[in-house]
Structure formats: C-alpha cells, structure tokens
Design goal:
The protein is α/β, with parallel strands linked by helices. The chain has 12 helices and 12 strands. The strands form 2 sheets. A 6-stranded mixed sheet has the order 1-12-2-3-4-5. A 6-stranded mixed sheet has the order 6-7-8-9-11-10.
C-alpha cells in the first residue's frame, strides 16, 4: 500500500508540474522517470539492499534519497494547496485565479521551496535531539515522589542513517540529566542484531538511579524479535513485554509496566495485554505504563494506569502533514493529553525511520518528565 500511495503522489506531481513545463518531450520523460524512481526507491532498496525498514546502504545515500523523497512529498503538498486555492478562487475571477495560481513561475518557486525545505528537514531529522522538560501532575502520587524525574527515549531507530556516534551523543545527553528512571518506549532499531550490534552498544551506558526499562515497538518485530529482546537484556535494558516491576523509592513504591505492540499479531507473538501487564498491581500504587503506540489509551486508563508514555508518531514529522498522523492514532500525535483520570504523553521521538528522514516544525526530543504529586480529586 505504501508503494501505491507514493506512486500516486509521483503521478500527481508529474501531472501538475512536469507536463506543463515548456520542455521537449524527452526532457519531460526523463524527469518523470526520475520522480517515479524517487517515489519507489524504497521498493528498490528493499529488493536489492536489505529490507523496507533497514536498507543496508551508506548513510550518504540514505540522506540523498531522503532529501529527494522529501522534496517530492513537499512539492506534491504545495501543488495540491495551490490547486485547491485556484479552484476556490476561480468562480470569483478566472483571470485572477490563473494569474496567481497558474503561472509557470509559481511552479518553479514551489519546486525550489520544496527542495530547500527538504534539505532543512533532513538536517533537523538527523541532528542530536534537544531535551524537552515537561512537568506532569499525577493524582495519588506520594508526596515523597514529588520531583521524581523520568527520562523517556523513544524511536531511536538505530540504522545506517543513525549510527553509533549519534547514539553515543543521545546516551551522553540522557545521562547528563541524572534521571531517577529511564524508560525506552520502543522502536530502538532498524535491522538485525548482527547488522546493528555496534550502533546499539552505547545503550549499555544508560544510567538511572532506579533502573533502565524498555518495551518493543513495531520495528523490533521486523527483524529477529526474539534476538533483539535477548540483545537488549544483555545491554542492561530490562524488558517489560506485558509485564511490570515494582520499584521501591524510599518508603514509597512506583509501578512501571509495559505492553507489546499490536503488530505482534502478524508474527504469532503475544499481543498487548494490559491485564497481564498490571496483574497483581495494588490499586493504591502509582502506575507508569509504557506503550509504544498511543492508541488504546482509553482502555489503559480504565485498567488503572496513571501515566502512559508513548512514541511511534514521531510528532507527525512535518507541521501540517502531522494531521494525517494524528487521525491515524486516535487523535494523539505529540505532547500531553488527559485521558480520563490518566495522563498520556506522546513524545516526538529521538530518531526516525530512515525511509522518510524529514522533520519540519516537529522537532526530535529527549523527554525529561518531572512528576508532581497532586491530591486525589483535584
């Protein structure tokens, strides 16, 4: 389905940008062919150079392909916006509509704008993320835990694009926060344990007073799930697939739980099970739930989670286009939400899938959460 959609996007750009160009037919055919190759480059790389999630090609190639694909997507979006504005204004004045939205000069401006924005977007996507601090009030959180700090890492996507030096920088920036707890909410890797062994090795250096815990995201299932779960444990990440741990914090306790990802069903592996994840948890204990996707938050709130931490959406990656991501994730895309009595935080993520390495207006982040106690009923 992805390849069909990207192909249709290329055809739209060919129809609305290439065909009107004042070029000879051979030039238009060549440009149209290039656009179709850019649109379907994922199909090429997965066929000859690895998989859809992890093409094993040099980082420079991935950057160039990402820039070209991003330019195509942004140009299609701008052309669509131009066409909509043209259609809306045409009944008022056809001459004005054609002058403002039908000129070849505007098409050139849109193409150059798309290329420049895609270049900025690639840079934004691969830079080391900044720290975003968020204070969250939790009803019933013991006063002894007021000020407890949790660092959330999500969507690291170690790959040929985001390699060991980038991961080392993320880990160093995380440890510099001296967190009480570090939680990694899925999509740590793209590729097999063998291919990414060196890139994920810095994760062994993650430190937090009360431990480092993690869950799988959908990308962990695409290449040797069981191998990755064992590899993460060896790196010192305690995995919580449909499980929980009770952490003693002074005279209080804090429950950290996790669920698996819904894509597990496609691989015959355990699907998310909130009942199993919270089995035996005292109702009086504050519960932090890790769920890679924000979907299902209503059920998790009803099950007793006080704070759900999710990623998966990458914040939508591009301002404006993020609305489509929001629709696909039950209205959740970035930031803090209240779901019943539960708080839900959806992080923009530290990294992203190498097949669309663009961020514009939706920056990457390392999330520092400061928990605040709040009497029940407020």
């Amino acid at each position: 389905m992805f390849h069909v959609v990207s192909g249709l996007i290329a055809l739209y750009v060919i129809w609305r940008f290439v065909l009107p160009l004042p070029w000879q037919r051979p030039g238009k055919v060549v440009l149209a062919g290039v656009l179709l190759l850019v649109a379907e480059h994922h199909l090429v790389t997965r066929t000859f150079f690895g998989t859809m999630s992890s093409p094993e090609v040099p980082a420079t190639v991935l950057l160039v392909l990402g820039w070209a694909f991003g330019t195509l997507i942004l140009l299609a979006a701008l052309l669509l916006l131009r066409d909509v504005l043209g259609w809306v204004t045409r009944p008022l004045s056809r001459r004005v509509s054609d002058t403002l939205f039908g000129s070849g000069g505007l098409r050139l401006v849109l193409a150059v704008t798309s290329a420049v924005l895609a270049g900025v977007g690639v840079w934004q996507a691969v830079r080391v993320p900044e720290v975003r601090t968020v204070e969250i009030e939790l009803p019933g959180l013991p006063t002894a835990l007021d000020g407890f700090t949790v660092v959330q890492l999500t969507d690291l996507h170690a790959s040929r694009l985001l390699q060991r030096p980038w991961m080392e920088a993320v880990v160093a920036r995380t440890n510099a926060l001296s967190p009480d707890l570090t939680l990694v909410t899925g999509d740590l890797v793209d590729g097999t344990p063998e291919a990414r062994a060196d890139d994920v090795r810095p994760l062994a250096q993650l430190q937090a007073r009360h431990g480092v815990f993690a869950i799988p995201g959908n990308h962990e299932y695409y290449a040797e799930y069981q191998g990755w779960m064992a590899a993460f444990e060896r790196l010192g990440l305690r995995m919580l697939p449909n499980a929980h741990v009770v952490l003693p914090v002074g005279d209080s306790t804090l429950v950290v739980a996790g669920v698996t990802d819904p894509v597990a069903a496609q691989f015959g592996l355990p699907e998310p099970d909130i009942g199993a994840a919270l089995a035996g948890v005292p109702e009086t204990d504050a519960v932090i739930l890790m769920s890679h996707r924000p979907v299902g938050a209503d059920a998790y709130a009803q099950a007793g989670a006080d704070l759900q931490l999710s990623g998966h959406t990458h914040g939508g990656q591009v301002l404006g286009l993020h609305l489509a991501t929001q629709l696909a994730n039950e209205g959740y895309v970035s930031g803090l939400y209240r779901v019943g009595a539960m708080q839900l935080y959806v992080s923009n993520g530290a990294g992203l899938w190498n097949g669309f390495p663009i961020r514009l207006g939706r920056p990457s982040e390392i999330t520092r959460l400061v928990l605040r106690s709040m009497p029940v009923g407020e």
